[in-house]
User: Fold these one by one.
Assistant:
Number 1:
Amino acid sequence: MSQKVIIVGAGLTGSLLTIYLARRGFNVEVYERRADMRIVNISAGKSINLALSTRGIHALDQVGLAEEVLKTAVAMKGRMIHSNKGELTFQPYGKNENEYINSISRKDLNVILMNEAEKFPNVQIYFNQRCTGMSLETGEAYFVNETHGGSSVVSGDTVIGTDGSASAIRMEFLRSKHFNFSQSYENYGYKELTIPTAEGGGFRIEKNALHIWPRGSYMMIALPNVEGDFTCTLFMNYENGEYNLNKLVARTDVTQFFQKVMPDALELMPELVDDFFNNPTGSLLTIKCYPWNINGKALLMGDAAHAILPFFGQGMNCGFEDCYYFDKLIEKHGTDWQKIFEEFGKLRKENADAIAELALENFVEMRDLVAHKDFLLKKKADVLLEERYPERFISKYAMVTFHRIPYAIAMKRGQIQDRILMEMCSKIDSIDELNLEEAFDRIKTEFAKAGIEEKLKLEV
Ligand SMILES: Cc1cc2nc3c(=O)[nH]c(=O)nc-3n(C[C@H](O)[C@H](O)[C@H](O)COP(=O)(O)OP(=O)(O)OC[C@H]3O[C@@H](n4cnc5c(N)ncnc54)[C@H](O)[C@@H]3O)c2cc1C
């Protein structure tokens, strides 16, 4: 196959996509703005570590990489909730030992993907190449060399923009007619902080959990790294609430805030104040746009097409799933890019919108609900219903995280289930008081009204 595909951005989605395309024999040229992270010590951007789950693992497995990646991961079997008083409560993620998520280093994962991509003789990755735009008429893409400033024009049979939420390729789409675009920032920012490895090695707190300090209008989470440290992320409103980012200006503000609301975390974080002031404040945004392609000349994929909030741990998983479905469409349509791109957009758009909505819902769940009685009872009800009605009831979290059920279906079913169960759980004090048959009957009735089939098609 002599066709040449230009990929802009060698992040997580772009690197995995390169492998899929190289396996099909395409000549792939990848242009990445940053230096080669295998040679130069640079941050891989955004979060230091990420939660990898079933959709992402499946997409990696198709190219034979799941095992290698999972070797570098730490299993997170549930949420460890830290109360104001430092009490700990563990909430398992799944119904059994096999349902867990994996904490992986963004950089290690990106390196594994780039190394694998470069094993193919038909792949070339160019670093320090910042895309400045492209011509949607000719398909040429334009680059500036970030080290010496020279510019270049590159052409191929098609261009795929996997250049993230600030995509330069998407900027070109904005100039074309009939392109819809929205970008919405949350009034929240985030700070990455660290719980270092214990003296003498090992983990200072439970290794196999995603730790959460839920505090209503703000929260902190901590994900384990194989080396024994934890990467913490404090999500907080910029200006509202008793505590907010704008109020944390002096070193003592930060220590006093932690002392008051997360004293157990403060003890674990000797570098807290330096981390807080040295690390940038990240912003949180959702990007929606459509169509994702222009005339078969260019396509957007991953965060470039659908950046979402990080609260369901699905952004990368969704980008990896994009790669898998894209590959299936190449199998079906060969090199008819226009057909592939259009079908890809139709297949993925409603699912990308659904996970964007679910991610927002999960923010409320994580920062607030996880500490409430009704929610804890609902979690128990989820497990009991899953056991009693297999393939007809799966919790929303499990549909998104442990299955590949399209996000749009997971959202429709999950919202109905959660609404009914939360209402029923608000009227009881113990899970033994919940009438499971009644709960399932009510859910079934709502499914029927919404035109949802009772039985789930598990992996489509
Ligand atoms: C705080 C936080 C936590 C997260 N946690 C999770 C999680 O637990 N699980 C999960 O699945 N997802 C998570 N995500 C989402 C995840 O980070 C993204 O969905 C994922 O990185 C998207 O990958 P991408 O390759 O599409 O984009 P990116 O990772 O943004 O990669 C884009 C690449 O393009 C390059 N680039 C950008 N502009 C140009 C240009 N003009 N020219 C050339 N190259 C360019 C960049 O340097 C980069 O290498 C999280 C996000 C955040 C912010």
Number 2:
Amino acid sequence: MYETLKTDLIASLSGTVLEIGAGTGRNFPHLSPGAEWIGLEPDRRLHAKLQASASRHARPNPRILPARAESIPLADESVDAVVSTVVLCSVDDQSTALAEVSRVLRPGGRLVFFEHVAAPRGTWTRRLQRAWAPFSRRFDRGCDPVRDTASAIERAEFAFVEFRRFAMPTGLGPTVPFIAGYARR
Ligand SMILES: C[S@@+](CC[C@H](N)C(=O)[O-])C[C@H]1O[C@@H](n2cnc3c(N)ncnc32)[C@H](O)[C@@H]1O
């Protein structure tokens, strides 16, 4: 069900699609064949895998930008859509990154997101997230599990935001709160 949510969000995109924090290219299977993909990935150690994944999915010459979402090396209003899956937990500055996403999107373009977020205050999940945060920040590429990413997106420069919340099973007992949806510029 959760993979279907992500698939539907990404598959709906067309034109020039910028994926921030593209990682090893796990989203290529969801992308429409007609979309022109640009990947932004600051960790150069992942570029070879990203390149290989692109080739496996019929994208032999992908444009990969070694940059952070806080400073996107693209012109204003130059892309039709932006994809962010499990990235806004890791960026150094969410509001700067979201301002950059809004800047590069053409008017009417969409940011689609699929992100884990902080559990409500006072819950056991939130306590677990807070206890885990120092480790994930240090050992999981800066990932901060206690971010209120939904509010950050709602505060950013988008005309309309729609998303749903759900609990992703981990198989270990506690679930992880997620949001999935889109923000229109
Ligand atoms: C958990 S991985 C997710 C990768 C991919 N989006 C996925 O769903 O499989 C987080 C990614 O965000 C990238 N990242 C970390 N800080 C970033 C930043 N400031 N701007 C853009 N990407 C960043 C990491 O290098 C990593 O590839």
